[in-house]
Design brief:
alpha/beta, FAD/NAD(P)-binding domain, D-Amino Acid Oxidase, Chain A, domain 2, 9-stranded mixed beta sheet, 17 strands
Length: 532
Amino acid sequence: MGHLNAGTARADELARMQAREWDLIVIGGGITGAGVAQQAARRGWSVLLIEQRDFAWGTSSRSSKLVHGGLRYLKEGDIKTTLHSVRERERLMREAPELVEVQSFLFADCAARKPGRWLFQLGLMVYELMAGKRSHFYAKLNAAQTLAPGLAPDLMRGAMVYADAKTDDARLVWRVLMEARRDGALLLNYVHAQSLQHSSTGASNLTVRDAVSGQSYPVRAKAIVNATGAWADRLRSGVGGKPMLRPLRGSHLVVPFWRLPVAQSISLMHPRDGRPVFLYPWEGATLIGTTDLDHKGDLDIEASITLAEVDYLIEAVNDQFPAAALTPADISACYAGVRPVVAQAEGDASKAARDHAVLDESGLITVAGGKLTTFRLMAQDALALAATHAGKPFARDDAALFTPTSALNPHWNARVRHRLAARYGYLAQTRAGEPVDADLQTVAGTDTLWLELSIAARYEAVQHLDDLLLRRTRLGILLPRGGLDHLARIRVLCEPHLQWGDQGWVTEIARYQTLIAAHYQLPSARPEEPTP
């Protein structure tokens, strides 16, 4: 696999991209595209995946980081999505237990607030019946406040406690991509699909542009899957597809854990409008989310939180933890992503269905919508349509997604072994090598090992500083100022592999500073904004 970021390696991969006709080209490097590539490569298909920005650049690095069964979808009567999500959550927790971890959730039971205790517990019973295990219980007031010190919304009388799961969404994408590459897939970031050409059998030729060199190349394929998420309608327009997506923006706040320490995930219905909000411990910080707004902005520009959304999320926290008195000054970072929801109708965005759609339009297979949790099912639905074009047999199955994690150095402490297993799976020991003790320490205020930076720079196709700090690691949203205060040590660890040189680092730092200020810090102005 080698030094994926090196110019010579990329040139070799671009040459390999052109040298053959692929059974399948996957356009889009988020969780959906990664899943399609993995499922196809495992079946022996020749697979090329291209991503116009970076792997997981879009929705798949900006989600709520939850691998959940969609308890709230039960309320909307979406039984199928909930059932699929619960079962896929259980699969991911079994196969990648270090990366997809159980997370305890607590929902305060308050007099005169919906949903009431009995209705909520009925939903939990159905939820757990789908999973085949029971974990929820009711905690009386004293017990609930022991589990969540400081939790004190008006008229609180107890709490429902139940289990779901969390992950690092961008690393989940990377783990799936690792499996696809292991089975022979070629993966290229910063390669943009420019145009499709059709033969009598449908979409079979593609012109792509390498954003690194600026050069365009022809590529041939038997089948093409459009897994571009919120951008899917743009590619579909080339084959006459009518718009089917409703882009919804979800925004999140990150605060230092010491400022809002929670051991449970606190789930709630916002006191203003009854929409679901949560806060929970994640990667050494506390994550607060999410909003649900129709996103009217240019999809080629990174989504950003608005001050109205900041106010909305802070209001939710202070309703549950009045003594915390959280203010905008406490926020170390924020981020926003656009969900590709298949829903044309207007109405309450939080009630829009989260199921997915798969279409075959003149040989272009589009898979859109869905949830992070159900990517495997989405991938198999897409391949069921693509198989005819690819001339390949296809049958759905329940084969394992992940290769078992390799044994790790027993002299490392349990925390280090757990962390490396989560992020690198079967390659954990190989990637880690023989690090010095300092590289096995965490970056202060996070769960990130310093070692992760050099591994990413050496092996993980880093083209820009934001690839390294926002997606391969999450330091850009876990630390104040996007982690800029640690750049000296980051450069020492990464430059031997990136080889950007002095001017390259100057350019990348300036680019990164602009990006962080515009999209990952509090907005400085308050334009006309809709209610979250």
